Amino acid sequence: MKTAFKVGVIRRNKQIKQADLAAKVGISREHLSAVENNRETPSFSLLEKIATVLGVNVTELLDDQSTKLPQL
């Protein structure tokens, strides 16, 4: 599963709005949307911030072989 797709899936599973996640990591909602839709590649530091807010390890976002997603 691609990193960008994982960010969106995890965010939605945790019922966090794009605007809220974007604000917490210090980017615009449009930038987050571009990351989630694989139109922009996030920096590692941004992935770390996103992972922290989502409550996951950054390696879970980067590992293409991982299919483990948090359940509600």
UniProtKB/TrEMBL annotation:
It comes from Methylomusa anaerophila. The keyword DNA-binding applies. Keywords: DNA-binding. CDD domains: HTH_XRE. InterPro entries: Cro/C1-type_HTH (IPR001387), Lambda_DNA-bd_dom_sf (IPR010982). The gene is sinR_3. SUPFAM superfamilies: lambda repressor-like DNA-binding domains (SSF47413). The keyword Chloroplast does not apply. The lineage of its organism: Bacteria, Bacillati, Bacillota, Negativicutes, Selenomonadales. This is HTH-type transcriptional regulator SinR.
